[in-house]
Specification:
single chain, alpha/beta
Length: about 260
């Protein structure tokens, strides 16, 4: 049933506030999605992970059918005054609907059919992280390894930037140098992207199984990870630009290697 809430100290609304912070997401193993499209994506691809839905009274009146669909799926829909919803929202122009989701605890494990993997080494900007996840799904990569030091996949800006791909792309968090060595033992060739790479991307013939490494926005691939890489490639650039945005670089390399 749809429950009306007006008290700021309601326990469900307190949870939403906690999840806006990284330690709150880590402690509760939950995260927030926000906006009409994201909630519809969750209903289609991750319905079993929806803990509850919060809507503004204005949204409920305007989108009653969607609100009722949410209620059928999770049975916990909370309708709050618009002013209270705006306080809970993480966006400048709230749409009036958000959902609390369980984090996916099933980590990506490459299998015999896996041939293209992305490794993110210290990608720190949430927008870049979300865009990379979205691009990896669009291009058809099998999964993503996230090295320690990467930004939180479940941060609100990251989740919004994935445009729903966060529900479908397979991820492995907290990866280490040992994780990469294990990939090599499985037959994957590790390809690091760096401006000083000895091989130009357009001249590189990728092996059947490869894992491409995208580094930190400011410092690139770490020395530890670079030492493990089998090949170092560069993206040829013209003009005066010294580097590319991490998400753009990831998209270019993934598209080339997928071919």
């Amino acid at each position: 049933m749809i429950n009306n809430i007006s008290a700021k100290d309601n326990k469900n609304l307190k949870l939403v506030r906690q999840l806006k912070k990284k330690n709150g997401r880590e402690d509760n193993h939950k995260f927030i999605i926000e906006g009409r499209k994201m909630v519809i994506e969750a209903l289609e691809y991750a319905a079993e992970d929806i803990c509850c839905v919060v809507v503004s009274d204005e949204f409920c009146a305007r989108e009653l059918q969607l609100v009722q669909n949410c209620d059928k799926v999770c049975g916990r829909v909370y309708c709050v005054p618009k002013s209270l919803f705006d306080e809970l929202s993480d966006t400048d122009t709230p749409q009036g609907i958000l959902a609390v989701m369980e984090q996916n605890t099933e980590e990506f494990v490459p299998d015999g059919d896996s041939s293209r993997i992305l490794i993110l080494d210290g990608v720190s900007e949430p927008g870049n992280m979300g865009t990379i996840i979205r691009t990896a799904e669009a291009i058809g990569f099998d999964g993503i390894y996230l090295m320690k030091g990467c930004t939180d996949v479940y941060a609100p800006k990251t989740v919004r930037s994935t445009m729903g791909s966060v529900f479908r792309v397979k991820l492995k968090n907290g990866c280490t140098a040992q994780s990469l060595e294990e990939l090599k033992n499985m037959g994957f060739s590790l390809i690091a992207t760096t401006p000083s790479g000895s091989i130009a991307l357009e001249g590189y013939k990728a092996p059947l199984k490869c894992a491409v490494i995208i580094g930190n926005e400011a410092h690139g691939v770490s020395d530890e990870v670079m030492a493990i890489a089998d090949t170092k490639i560069r993206i040829t650039m013209g003009g005066m630009a010294e580097s590319l945005n991490a998400a753009i670089a990831a998209g270019i390399v993934m598209h080339w290697l997928k071919k």
